[in-house]
Amino acid sequence: MNAFRDYLEYVWNQLAGIGIVDILDIAIVSLLLFWVIKFVRGRRAGKLLIGVGILFLLLMLSSLFDMRALNYILNSVFSVGLIAIVIVFQPELRSALEKVGGVGDNFKGLIDNDEMRLAISEICVAAEEFSKSKTGALIVFERNTRLGDVIRTGTTVDAVTSSLLLGNIFYNKAPMHDGAVIIRKGRVHAAGCYLPLSANNNIVKELGTRHRAAIGMSENSDALVLVVSEETGGISVAIDGNIKRNLTKKTLESILAVNLLGEEKKNIKDVVKGKIFKRSGNGKDEQN
User: Fold this and answer.
1) How confident is the model over 187-244, as pLDDT tens digits?
2) CA-CA distance, 224 to 229, in Å (whole number)?
3) 68, 111, 179, 252: which could form a disulfide with 247 (CB 3.0–4.6 Å)?
4) Of 105, 120, 136, which residue sits at a domain end?
5) What distance in Å separates the CA atoms of residue 215 and residue 279, rounded to the nearest whole number?
6) pTM over 0.70
7) Which of 105, 124, 148 finishes a domain?
8) How far apart are CA 139 and CA 127, in angstroms?
9) 256 and 117 together in one domain
10) Are residues 163 and 63 in the same domain?
């Protein structure tokens, strides 16, 4: 009984010594761990981190049970582990650092922008027409992360966004119809651009190259990507490595308004930011 009382007294003394700085420290570390787990979940980095964790566990066990050969090998591996991690996780680290660098600009893309609002309206009209005619289309909305590397793969346009212009670009005999259109600040900034394909092996097999490119672009940046399928005419939106398929014009307009202008359409009950793009953890799309 005395031992238990001593233990409770020890715990109380430890808790009593916690100050505001300690609480802030714990909160920051918790948020950092949460952000890291959220970022790697559903990406290749998640499986790689599990592998690193298993090796670290083996290192601890080899030290505990005095397994000298295994301990020597694992110590040698971890001695150059930082360099190896930087090399192996290069795409994920780049994407993470870009997003961290854009934290201070989180609300710049949510400005009340008449040109962006007009662009959304025109793009939704174009998407509906593309869906009816089964015209393939790939449209990228640049947000905080600059897409200069992607823009350089295409042709600079810098024109006011209109459904007619998009129709000309994605006409199946037009020279730039296979590439992506980049929308910057509500304007058609470039066309015929090539996007990085997603390496996620868990994406449903029925999705083609356009959809994989859309998911890949959303994995490597904070861009929002609109896709219209050439085979089915289905309208999809990719964001943060997830894809929402089979959208109507009305739902598409609401998603774009929420994510690009920060506006919630009160008459669209099923469109709520944070519910549309729930992480599935496996890169699969969410069906309507």
Assistant:
1) 999 999 999 888 887 788 888 899 999 999 998 888 999 999 999 999 999 998 899 9
2) 16
3) 252
4) 105
5) 13
6) no
7) 105
8) 10
9) yes
10) no
